[in-house]
Amino acid sequence: MSKTTSLHANPFHVLGVTTRDDRRKIVDMAEERALIFDHDLCQKARSDLTNPRTRLSAEMSWMPGVAPRVAEKLASALLADSTPFRSEQSVPELARANLMAAALELGRDDETADDISESIRAFAWVVEGIDADDVLRDVNEDRAISGFPEINAVGLIEEELGERRKAYRAVLRNLLNSMDSDKLVETMTDVVSVTTNDGDEQGPALVDDLADAYELETQGFLQQEADNIAILIDSVRMAAPQGQSAVAPIMDRLERVARNWDRVAQPIQLSAKSRGLQHRQSRDVAYELRSLGVDLHNDHGMLDQAHRMTVLLQELFAELPEVVERLEGDAEAIAELRSQALAEEKNQAQWARSIAFRAEVGVMFKDELAVGPDGIRWKGNAYALDSITRVRWGGVRNSINGIPTGTNYTVAFGDAHEQHVVELRKEATYSGFIDALWKAVCVPLMVRMIEHLASGRSLNFGDIEVVDDAVTLTKRRLLSSNELVRLSWNDVHVWSADGSFVIGHKADKKTYGSASYIKNWNTHLLEQIIRSGFKRGVARLSDTLEN
């Protein structure tokens, strides 16, 4: 690190004079020092100190308000050990700031990021506390003794303080530029975070200036990483149609790059927040990432990835009020969706357990008969539940000479192209299969049947034709042809007889229709729909869905 400082290059130190020495003493010392040191340097120092205007710059970059002997001792002690000068000294603020700046110029090779941050923070607050009126008083007190004209306008002091702050910024920039990148980022983050209370309070102006300079220095890196984030976002979108397994590894890389980007941008975000501003580049990156999360949920149903993105954004961009507000809304919506998804998952699991059935059918050669969410399995084949459009079942009791010999049970199911018949002998297997079939197939199939009727179409069962608001039955005659009669649901009643479901005219016993439970498709379902409609007192069967 540097073995000298701008303080030691001050004209007062170069000539070995004090702020209270008169013009003659300055000229004599300049001639004397010119014989030993650089002649041009000594002549320039003499000129700076004897010209009232340039003298003010030298006075304010030295130690105004400090006794001459004390000032020289401090300058010498600083070169011996700069550590004590990193903290506040019992001298006026401007002199203290100049001493601290010189100590930071000297630096130490063994300093940690925390050590440097602490020194910068203390320095910034000292600079913030410099009062132009106090400096004017100190300068004029020394000038009254040295014989130089006093400063009459505090505006000159304020103008020179602006130059001092530029010099302080240069000292800090040089200090930061001497660090490796990780240490620099760590130091800047700590300086801005602590002085602004994580962006909630206005920090010292010197820290704001330092953050602005840091933003310029890191612009190239941040733009490159923002471009990398954009590329990864596009990659996630391209992989999304292939599912979670394709998206997850790209999301991992995206998260690493986003975290690295935010690590460098953090000081800029905090500084902007403390000043009531937003870092535009951070905002743009945050919205691009948020848009990805929204698309993953809306377009691909990836709720977990959307939740992951929201949590990441809330962590990385907590310093952006506008973004935080939107993310809070996103988080609430996703939490509700996740709750619904968990409830749906729980319901699906309960439904899967409720329809679960498995049995082996046959005496010598066993065939598996099973029902589950993946469909009906029978004789080594699987049939999707939503592909089944028709079902029928029933039992036939057998007897010999009036003595019961058992019951044969038949269950059939099919789609639009083929049917499959299951013959059973065990009542427990039959009952278990029907119960599972009802929950897994019949309930959703009844909904489809009702929707079919609601669209204005008809369904036929045996010699019965059903529409949404009416049924067509057959009026049977002995001496003439039978007649088809259309009746509203209020005009009919239902019953079961001889293995069939029967619908009859309330006022005419000869007008009726029937459908076999075991031979005609979906008769059991028709009965359930009609009886449900009667119970609810609806005029249209489709009204059962609305109620």
Question: How would you characterize the overall build of this protein?
Answer:
With 547 residues, this protein is of the alpha+beta class. Strands 8, 9, 10, 11, 12, 13 and 14 form a 7-stranded antiparallel β-sheet that branches. Strands 1-2-3-4 form a 4-stranded antiparallel β-sheet. A 3-stranded antiparallel β-sheet has the order 5-6-7, with helices on one face. Helix 5 runs parallel beside helix 6 and helix 11 packs antiparallel against helix 12. The longest helix is centred in the middle third of the chain and has 35 residues. The radius of gyration is 46 Å and the shape is rod-shaped.
Helical residue percent band: 55-70%
Query: Structural class, from secondary structure content?
Result: alpha+beta
Which band does the percent of strand residues land in? 15-25%
Shape annotation: rod-shaped
Q: What is the β-strand count?
A: 14
The radius of gyration computed from the alpha-carbon positions, rounded to a whole number of angstroms, is: 46 Å
What's the N-to-C terminus distance?
84 Å
Largest sheet: 7 strands, antiparallel
If you average the pLDDT, what whole number results?
Answer: 89
Counting DSSP H or I runs of 4 or more residues, the number of helices is: 18
Q: Low-confidence runs (pLDDT<50, min 5 residues)?
A: none
